[in-house]
Amino acid sequence: MNTQMNIPHMSQEEWELRTKLAQCYQLVDYFGWTETIFNHISARLSGEENHYLVNPFGLNYSEITPENLLKVDLEGHKVEPSEYDANPAGFALHSAVHGARHDIRCLIHTHTTPISAVVQKKNGFASDNFYGAQLFGRIGYHAFEGITLFAEEKQRMIESLGDKHILVLRNHGIAVGESSIEKAFFLLWTVQRAAEIQCQAGALGGEDYPLQQDVKQKCADLTAMLIRDSGFAIKFFNAMVRKMNADKN
């Protein structure tokens, strides 16, 4: 993917954000986590706190490029001309989070089969597997109110999320948010792996071996520290982009 800015009157910083966000869309497609043309990944623009980038509705994730990403405001209105429109189903969730949580600069919403299966269960995510332990105490739960179209649900979603970075939309899917695209993608990968293992373990039958609370907390704290205080997520993201590109070629 071209990493040089080629849109007139656009800052290099915005072009780099667009490039990285397009790569994130393509990675989600590469890993098979898409829901055809639905769902969203958004990234808030620096210096434009009320504007964020999101996918054009109707395109496959594999078709997302830095150029065709939409710039919208918190109401979901396009702030720059585009031949594409956005999917209004994403505005309630994404605009709510971007408007209320300024520490979250990238938000990813998915509902893969394992994730949707787990969030349909009353107990939600287990924390007794390697990846689930890393999510211990980091998940907020929001009751299903139907397709997220309506502004009236925004405040309730924000209250459900609280100060956490993972929001389970019960009977639906998840949204993960972090301070960068790389960190959000790594968190999504962790949530996806936790869901996959939980589903497989449940299918095996038999009793799970429980982890102690202090061990779960240690895992969650260590993972949060790695994401927050190191280049770990950047290394992971870049490695996945290289793998994707190599496999495409």
TrEMBL record:
* Pfam families in alphabetical order: Aldolase_II (PF00596)
Which NCBIfam families has this protein been placed in?
PRK07044.1
Outline the extent of the Class II aldolase/adducin N-terminal domain.
19-199
What protein name is recorded for this chain? Class II aldolase/adducin family protein
Organism classification: Bacteria, Pseudomonadati, Pseudomonadota, Gammaproteobacteria, Moraxellales
| InterPro entries from the UniProt entry | Aldolase-II_Adducin_sf, Aldolase_II/adducin_N, Aldolase_II/adducin_N_sf
Q: SMART domains of this UniProt entry? A: Aldolase_II
Q: Which organism does this sequence originate in?
A: Acinetobacter terrestris
User: Family, per the entry?
Assistant: Belongs to the aldolase class II family.
